[in-house]
């Protein structure tokens, strides 16, 4: 049974439909064309090898899929369950990204933000802040129950009358 899409609050729409797709597209481009920079952003200890480019190309494909799912699929989906499934999938992915960062940094550094490089601050903040928003979205924080209705009675799916 379809779960009609309620009015999605602006902060969620900005993050899920605009900001994150751009970031994912940027990550894809970096993996394809500047893998050294991409790798350094997550760990200065690791050295890029052209022999591993296949892995970066595959990661680029994954980021491109995220960008597409958020920029296109969420815009055409009119069922809240589809939105939640995509958001949950990205939250799971981000959890693994955070865990991988923890492994590379080591617990001694990870739990002491004052020891982080600027790249660590950017990488971890760009994971943790959206993760918190995704968790809130999945719990429907700020989302009206049932279909969002405009004053004129029309359904407001993405914050606009349809």
TrEMBL record:
InterPro entries (UniProt xref): DUF7704 (IPR056121)
PANTHER family in alphabetical order: CHROMOSOME 1, WHOLE GENOME SHOTGUN SEQUENCE, EXPERA DOMAIN-CONTAINING PROTEIN
Keywords: Membrane, Transmembrane, Transmembrane helix
Domain of life: Eukaryota
This protein's name: DUF7704 domain-containing protein
Residues annotated as transmembrane: 12-35, 55-73, 85-102
DUF7704 domain segment(s): 7-140
């Amino acid at each position: 049974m379809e779960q009609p899409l309620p009015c999605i609050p602006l902060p969620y729409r900005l993050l899920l439909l605009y900001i994150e797709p751009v970031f994912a597209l940027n990550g894809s481009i970096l993996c394809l064309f500047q893998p050294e920079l991409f790798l350094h952003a997550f760990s200065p200890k690791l050295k890029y090898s052209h022999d591993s480019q296949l892995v970066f190309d595959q990661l680029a494909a994954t980021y491109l899929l995220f960008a597409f799912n958020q920029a296109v699929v969420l815009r055409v989906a009119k069922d809240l369950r589809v939105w939640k499934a995509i958001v949950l999938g990205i939250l799971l992915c981000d959890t693994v990204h955070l865990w991988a960062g923890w492994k590379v940094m080591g617990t001694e550094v990870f739990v002491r933000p004052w020891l982080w490089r600027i790249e660590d601050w950017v990488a971890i903040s760009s994971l943790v802040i959206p993760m918190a928003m995704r968790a809130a979205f999945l719990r429907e924080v700020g989302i009206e129950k049932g279909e969002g209705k405009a004053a004129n009675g029309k359904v407001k799916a993405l914050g606009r009358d349809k």
